[in-house]
Amino acid sequence: MADLLEIYHSLQDKKWIDLTHSLNADIPRFPALPALEKKDIFTLADGFHVQQFSVVTQLGTHIDAPIHFVEGGRWLDEFALKDFLLPIFVIDKSQAVADNPDYRLTKEDVLEFEDQYGQIPAGSFVAFRSDWHKRWPSQDAMRNLDEAGVQHSSGWSHEALEFLIEERQVKAIGHETLDTDAGVEAAENGGALHQEYYVLSKDIFQLEVLANLDQLPATGALISIAFPHWEQATGSPVRAVAILPE
Q1: pTM given for the model
Q2: Which of 19, 90, 128, 150 could be cross-linked to 175 through a Cys-Cys bond (beta carbons 3.0 to 4.6 Å apart)?
Q3: Catalytic (active site) residue 68
Q4: Exposure of 14 by Cβ count < 10 A (0-12 exposed, 13-18 middle, 19+ buried)?
């Protein structure tokens, strides 16, 4: 008990960063999905205040379980609780994305990160920092469509994902954009999200539409991920928090 209290007090002394966007009816979202709906069922005039929220599983900052894309994949409630408190490693390619919004994070980017910070250990959470979260809450800026309706947004390359999952055996990945795949790549594939399918086919989860990765160090922080205990959910909006080492 004393050890846990010491850990608790130590964590309370650290800086905590919210990695999630707030949810409301006007936030950016995948256009095929409905917006959040909220209404009062009872008010304080009735003696107590109760609200009803109608929200899809993939809205705002959210988690995707393998079943979201993969037949027979794990539901969200089939992951172990310990999978939702992980060391987080942040690969910063924000300048590359600023120069080229279609940028795809490469295996070489991961290796350069490891040259500077050391090898990413198994069981980690790896986040792609693009600073795309600074476009929030504009739907137009988040999607960044051209005249032909092609979305220009950054994403992961297959080689980087394969290396992280197969060689480094990471527990999960995350990014600030609406999709795992770069917008141009998705358009080239007729809208199919091949990289997202690959991630989820490997029986790991991912977080999308993260915020405030620019406030995290490259290494040394923890990420805590919380959401309701849904039964057989393909995903869920989350409250993700980073605990910094200093």
Answers
A1: 0.97
A2: 128
A3: yes
A4: middle
